[in-house]
Write a structure and sequence with these properties.
Largest sheet: 5 strands, antiparallel
Strand order of the largest sheet: 3-4-5-6-7
CATH class: Alpha Beta
Structural class: alpha+beta
Oligomer: single chain
Radius of gyration: 19 Å
Number of helices: 5
Distance between the termini: 38 Å
Strand content: 25-35%
Order of helices and strands: HEEHHHEEEEEH
CATH architecture: Roll
């Protein structure tokens, strides 16, 4: 996996949590029972899901928010613990937005304590090169419906997928840093091997 691909994956991983410090003054979040968000003009924007929405529909709405850069919806679709964690660590929900992204929802598996929803995210860079990511989203049932608690995806080649727990920000950031360091070491090793290879340039 290239450095660029790694950072694209990790950007998606923490998009729901954001990487920017929260501003000094932040308006109070919507109540846990609310299904609507207040817009800039004072109007209310309905959420794309309701209490009875299936896990796959919630993940689809979450991915829509990541693609569109809709921080309000992305934040609201996190679990209450994940939202609390972001506040405690001065993080804001600021998905970068990726208009070229395409994605599909796959298998939905009920597990102890929640649901795993498979997804495939396809993105194109400025040169038209395609990147493909398989991500498993972890959801938990809350009074307002299913909400996103974390995700798992393969980051380092030939390594098991990394689980990033949005409800445990310190652990998430530690895993991010470890994966970054490991990938950088692999890239450096490849570069050293290439530099050690004899030149194939013909000399006259």
């Amino acid at each position: 996996m290239s450095i660029k691909r790694f950072w694209t994956v990790m950007s998606m991983c923490v998009a729901s949590l954001g990487c920017s410090p929260a501003p000094p003054e932040v308006s109070a979040p919507p109540s846990e029972s609310s299904r609507e968000l207040s817009g800039d003009n004072g109007t209310e924007t309905p959420l794309p899901v309701v209490q009875t929405s299936e896990p796959g529909a919630v993940v689809l709405a979450f991915l829509d928010a990541l693609r569109d850069g809709d921080d309000e919806i992305a934040e609201t679709l996190l679990t209450s613990i994940a939202r609390r964690e972001t506040k405690e660590h001065d993080l804001t929900v600021q998905p970068p937005g990726s208009p070229s992204a395409r994605y599909t929802i796959g298998e939905v598996r009920h597990v102890q304590g929640g649901v795993h929803v498979n997804s495939n995210w396809i993105e194109y860079d400025e040169s038209g090169e395609q990147s493909n990511y398989d991500i498993v989203w972890v959801l938990r049932q809350e009074p307002v419906g299913w909400r996103v608690a974390g995700m798992a995806t393969a980051v380092i080649p030939n390594k098991p997928p990394i689980y990033l727990n949005f409800e445990d920000v310190p652990d998430l950031l530690q895993k991010w840093q470890q994966a970054d360091a490991e990938l950088a070491a692999q890239v450096e090793e490849v570069q050293d091997l290439q530099a050690a290879q004899p030149s194939t340039t013909l000399q006259r």
